[in-house]
Structures are given as structure tokens and as C-alpha cells.
């Protein structure tokens, strides 16, 4: 399951250009140089998606979209603000069981501001799937220390393919591939900071927002009705100890093994990259040569999909579970 923060296309209007007065649409209907602006009430909504046999499908755990409808990736847009700043966004189309488009969404890859015009300067249907796949990456920030078989912790940027890491359930495993990218630390790619000591971590830990942490709980403190639980980092946000990190740009790293693993980052159990149909379009061919799509034992049945508690409540429950280990 993956959560995307999207705008409804009906809340994005053309305020200057050939299509003046229209709202955001498919790539075929878009015209370069048209200027767009968020409506005053426009807000980001959580769109929850899963992988089905037919591709991307909307799940019931989000705030928008109809569960079981298909979701198609239309194109990637590049827009320029009045101040010359460029932003990218992905156009997504929701299709019902009768193959009719019922909703269009805009997934911003950087922050959009209200009362700001954005001129359309590029329409790219070729790279949209790859960029969406990149959002499914679970990423560690530069400087994150991962645990070696000796117990020593080593910064992720100093690791190389073939090095060994300690995993929770499979002992010592060799790194198959290490990914690295520098991205804007805003919008869908914004990182989250877990401050030192909050989850028994010695140092600050910075992760991508959908990264899942593993916890074993003696009591069902996280209300998922099982001992093992996976918690997305963004569900821990409390505005004080676990916060969005606004730093302009960030260096992200990904770790891939032959199988999906739980490893230790600054002492916290966190998942490695999963090679599946979501991430496949953006992975280098040599990284996955001879590797089949991975199945995982760390599935959605272990995950807390959308906690009923706020970030303070989830964080407090997770801290209690760690203290009782």
C-alpha cells in the first residue's frame, strides 16, 4: 500500500492562456504556456493505492477516490512560477469499472503555493511512471548509519555493493544494489526527522515519509491485532519529536538485497527497498538482472494502514512497545 498526497484537478484552474477558465485535464488536452493556479480552497488529500493484477488500484484507506477503481499514470508536468521556480507534478487518472475517467488528480513533486501562477512549460508522458516509481522507494538520508554484522554502524554513503549488513530475520546479507539521488526536500519527496533518543536512536534519523519501521509488541499497543507491526514514519509526526524536515535538497540512498529485509538504521528496525512492480520502472537493469520480483513477509497485514490515533498517540504507543521489549 502507498499513500499519495494529491490535489483534485477540479481545484486547479487555468487563469491565463488558451484554455482560460478550464481545469487541469489529460495530457492530450493541455496546452503549453497556459497558466494554472490553485483555487482558494484547494488542499492536499491522501490517495491510497495498491497493486492489483490489472495495475494500480485505489484502496479504501485514503481520503479520496473510489475503492477498487483503477488509477492510470498520464504524464509528468513541469511548471514555472512567476518567480522563475520550476516544479514538477504527475497527472493521475481514476477510471471506473466501465472504463470511464471519473477523476483527475495532480501529484506534486514539490510544493505548490496558493495565489501563485504556474505556467506549463513541459508535458512529458514518457517519464511519469518512472517518477511515480521513484516515490515508492524507501530511502535513508545521507549520514544514516546502518548496522554491520560486527555491531558497528557505518554511514550509508560509505557502503558499497557486496558489503554485508545485519538483518532482523535473515542474519547477515550482502547488499545487491545501492541507489542514490538528490531531490528537492519538498512535496511528495519531503523527508521526516526522528530526533535522537525518540525511538532509542542514538542519533537523528532522517527517512522518506512512507518508510516503514518494524516493531515487536508484547501487547497490542498499536491496535493491529498481532505482535509484529509496521508503522509508516509519517504516522508518527507530532510536530516536536518527529517532524517534517525543510532543507531545500536532500541526498537519498536506497538499499536492495536479494530479498526484502528489515535492517537497522541508527538502531531502529526499518525496511529495505522492495523490488516489485511499483519500483521496477525506475531501477537500473544491472541492479535487478536475474532478480525476480520480490515477495515479502512484511506485508500489509502487519501494517497499520491509517491509525485512528494522531501522531502523538502512535508515537507514544511505539515508544511503550520498544520499552517493553
Protein architecture, described:
This protein has 325 residues and is mainly beta. It folds into two domains: 125 residues, no CATH class; 188 residues, Hedgehog/Intein (Hint) domain (Endonuclease - Pi-scei, Chain A, domain 1, Beta Complex), CATH 2.170.16. 8% of the residues lie in helices and 38% in strands. It has three helices and 23 strands. The protein has a nine-stranded antiparallel β-sheet with strand order 2-3-9-6-7-8-1-4-5. A three-stranded antiparallel β-sheet has the order 10-21-15, with no helix packed on it. The protein has a three-stranded antiparallel β-sheet with strand order 17-16-20, with no helix packed on it. Strand 11 and strand 12 form a beta hairpin. The longest helix is centred in the last third of the chain and has 13 residues. It is globular and about 65 Å long. The mean pLDDT is 90.
Would you kindly provide a brief summary of this structure?
With 325 residues, this protein is mainly beta. The protein has helices at 128-135, 285-288, 311-323, and strands spanning 2-8, 12-16, 35-38, 45-52, 55-58, 70-81, 86-95, 101-108, 118-124, 140-141, 145-147, 153-155, 164-166, 172-174, 177-184, 191-194, 205-208, 212-216, 228-232, 242-244, 249-256, 262-265, 268-271.
SSE map:
Elements: E1 2-8, E2 12-16, E3 35-38, E4 45-52, E5 55-58, E6 70-81, E7 86-95, E8 101-108, E9 118-124, H1 128-135, E10 140-141, E11 145-147, E12 153-155, E13 164-166, E14 172-174, E15 177-184, E16 191-194, E17 205-208, E18 212-216, E19 228-232, E20 242-244, E21 249-256, E22 262-265, E23 268-271, H2 285-288, H3 311-323
Antiparallel strand pairs: 1-4, 1-8, 2-3, 3-9, 4-5, 6-7, 6-9, 7-8, 10-21, 11-12, 13-14, 15-21, 16-17, 16-20, 18-19, 22-23
